[in-house]
Amino acid sequence: MTTIPAPETESTDIDPVPDLADAVTDFYHYEQLLDADERDLLHRVRDFMRTEVHPLLLEYWSRAEFPQQIVPGMAELGLAGLPYQGNGCPGRSFLLDGMIAMELARIDCSVATFNGVHGGLAMGSIYLCGSDEQRERFLPAMSRYEKIGSFGLTEPGVGSGASGGLLTTAERIGDEWILNGQKKWIGNATFGDLTIIWARDVADGRVKGFVVDNHSPGFDVQKQEHKFALRIVQNGLITLTDVRVSEEDRLQNANSFADTAAVLRMTRAGVAWMAVGCARGAYENALAYAKSREQFGRPIGGFQLVQDLLVRMLGNNTASWGLCVRLSQLQDQGLAEDRHSSLAKAICTTRMRDTVGWARELMGGNGILLEHNVGRFVADAEAIYSYEGTREMNTLIVGRALTGQSAFV
């Protein structure tokens, strides 16, 4: 895996992570739904994010680079492919996986996205759509972060219409497939090792998945610059020019977009959890600020309008957290459907957007300074609101379930 060297000096001129009692952050004690061993891992992730990741954020967010030095720590914690059974994966619950996604996003949404792309989308594609041999060949190294994965679905001209409009093509010639096309917004692609490419088979018109080595001839990646959200995530524009992939690297159980959708159903739940983490991080920083910032001779936390904002934020976070808890329980029971993930993603991201805005409002002008930790959440919320299915698309999925009528174009 190619790494980006750390800078010689790293800025720590950033407010510390608030050390707030669970009673004012986990208001309904959702963590108690985890057993003692699961809570221990969650708290170790929390400590890692606070002590190892948080001090790097101002520098790396400003430079739009990814801190490669945090990857060994994530590997030691064993966070990749957390709910998958076998093939070197931890085999833990979806509830724990969701709470950890929230914990990562609570400090930085980009780090949560990096792990969601690698452990969720890339590993999940192989786990759900690969053969037994493919799972054994790829997943153990990926679970150890020795091979970093990406997920290539979105294209420059195709976003929400991916189910019927993919332009990237796959043509089989003998025991090989020839891939041509472009993929856009592909997280981890600039430094990763392999990418799951979804392409339309020119023979039957069906969408199929391929595990593509990023160093293959004809595989070109350009970093997408000038983002104002998720700046630490390294998004790539991938151009595939006659890239040859062997039949053994075609995902053997991915034979239509319905199989792609199964991966998205699972990972969309993780994005809902990230939205809760994003909102929670903004709320906690705003609450700590309200307790310490003084105006008119006393902390602003004692003013009615400030308390109103705090309660609105807490209400959004607590309700969204409960929605995600039940969704993860359905996943653990094997009962989760597209409509469940879509409702959670649509509602949690909408409430997240409101919450981070109120956190910025509470801080006044200081809210736009990165050093106060809320500005990143405000910016990053815009990306979470849109990726893995916009609010509108998820609304149509739920609306179809309610009415039995499809309102898609």
Automatic annotation (TrEMBL):
Pfam family, one: Acyl-CoA_dh_N
Record PROSITE patterns: ACYL_COA_DH_2
Residues covered by the Acyl-CoA dehydrogenase/oxidase C-terminal domain: 262-402
Transmembrane segments: none
Acyl-CoA dehydrogenase/oxidase N-terminal domain mapped to chain residues: 36-144
Cofactor(s) in the UniProt record: FAD
Keywords from the UniProt entry: FAD, Flavoprotein, Oxidoreductase
Record keyword Manganese present: no
The Acyl-CoA oxidase/dehydrogenase middle domain, residue ranges: 150-243
Domain of life according to the entry: Bacteria
Family, similarity comment: Belongs to the acyl-CoA dehydrogenase family.
Protein name per the record: Acyl-CoA dehydrogenase family protein
Organism annotation: Skermania pinensis
